[in-house]
Design goal:
Helix content: 25-40%
Order of helices and strands: EHHEEEEHEHEEHHEEEEHEHEH
Number of strands: 14
Shape: elongated
CATH superfamily of the largest domain: Gcn5-related N-acetyltransferase (GNAT)
Distance between the termini: 15 Å
Strand content: 25-35%
CATH class of the largest domain: Alpha Beta
Largest sheet: 14 strands, mixed
Number of domains: 2
Structural class: alpha+beta
CATH topology of the largest domain: Aminopeptidase
């Protein structure tokens, strides 16, 4: 097996297509829930990833001239930054060439590159909890530095009865797409100013309309669900879901924003369910809903968030946990002497 550094600035169209085909094949096998990058997106990512602050390098592994694996890593040029970073989602090994030592060989290469750049730590992100990848990092002595929770819901498999939650008395629900209906515009602007704590030109009707126009011009797709307080007609809570178009259409709900005086009314859980109900009814093209990922650096932070995780899980979401792990270069060099092939 031969390793080579991919020369993005000098690569031919055929070389780009070869790397892209390999990446798509691995992505479809390992991350079927994610849209594989287009050729143009991959080319732009690799060509623009090197800046004055950092360098991103792609390595290829070949057997008999054919790409069987690839991995990219990032090195920051700041001398105070001692870490080489690699995202697990950028490590692609041909499905038929797994557990043959390619991952271990790539890590040895990475250690040599770390020393060349004067770095003494390796950071690996995107390691899915409970997988063979996590077991491999544990064997080598990597330790978690942060945890990220991701919650997914496949709409075709969903139990719609779980979303049948009543709207609390004294409130009603409305929704819109990218643009706020004119009848709610002034109320929505007041709501934004209240949530942010002060009036500002950013929340003026004209500014809101300008951002909407820009979003529409850029092809944004969105569902916004808002709660109206019937006593005064004011908007007191919202939850927006950005809808991303790829191989599958995926909705990504953001956080729920509540006006302080209307918390503890059951609005947050109801809004989570209402977004799903409206997506199912109004956007049957949406294949999956993915709650925004949350990163935690201390076990105590993760424990405190578990209650919200359970609220979302009760609506049918599946929770996945991803780790960022780190280890010292010298420690890994010692461990690799006795590691099993991966």
């Amino acid at each position: 097996m031969d390793f080579e550094r991919f020369d993005a600035p000098q690569a031919t169209d055929d070389q780009w297509r070869e790397v892209h085909a390999h990446e798509v094949q691995s992505m479809e096998y390992d991350w079927p829930e994610l849209a594989s990058p287009t050729l143009d997106a991959m080319v732009n990512r690799l060509r623009e990833s090197t800046t004055t602050d950092c360098t991103n390098t792609l390595w290829l592994a070949r057997e008999h001239g054919k790409i069987v694996a690839s991995a990219s890593y990032t090195v920051h040029h700041d001398d105070a930054d001692h870490t080489v970073r690699i995202a697990f989602i950028t490590v692609h090994v041909h499905p038929e060439r797994r557990r043959l030592g390619i991952g271990t060989a790539f890590l040895r290469l990475l250690l040599a590159e770390a020393r060349r750049h004067g770095k003494d730590r390796i950071s690996v992100s995107g390691v899915r909890r409970g997988t063979s990848a996590e077991a491999w990092t544990v064997r080598l002595g990597f330790e978690p530095s942060s945890r990220t929770l991701l919650q997914r819901l496949v709409m075709a498999d969903a139990d719609l009865a779980l979303w049948d939650l009543p709207t609390p008395a004294g409130y009603r629900v409305v929704s819109w797409g990218v643009a706020v209906p004119e009848e709610f515009l002034s109320r929505y602007c007041r709501y934004l100013a209240t949530c942010w704590g002060s009036p500002h030109d950013w929340f003026a009707p004209q500014a809101v309309r300008e951002r909407e126009a820009q979003g529409l011009a850029e092809g944004c797709d969105r569902l916004v669900v808002a709660v109206v307080h019937e006593a005064d007609g004011e908007i007191v809570a919202t939850k927006a879901a950005e809808i991303k178009h790829g191989a599958d259409i995926v909705a990504r709900p953001g956080p729920t924003s509540l006006v302080l005086g209307h918390r503890d009314q059951g609005l947050e859980r109801m809004l989570e369910a209402e977004v799903l109900r409206r997506l199912a009814a109004e956007r049957p093209d949406v294949a999956e809903v993915v709650e925004k990922d949350q990163a935690f650096y201390l076990p105590e932070e993760l424990a405190a968030y578990r209650c919200m995780t359970q609220v979302i899980a009760d609506l049918g979401y599946r929770t996945e946990e991803y780790l960022r792990v780190e280890a010292g270069v010298e420690q890994l060099s010692t461990a690799l002497g006795s590691s099993r092939p991966d």
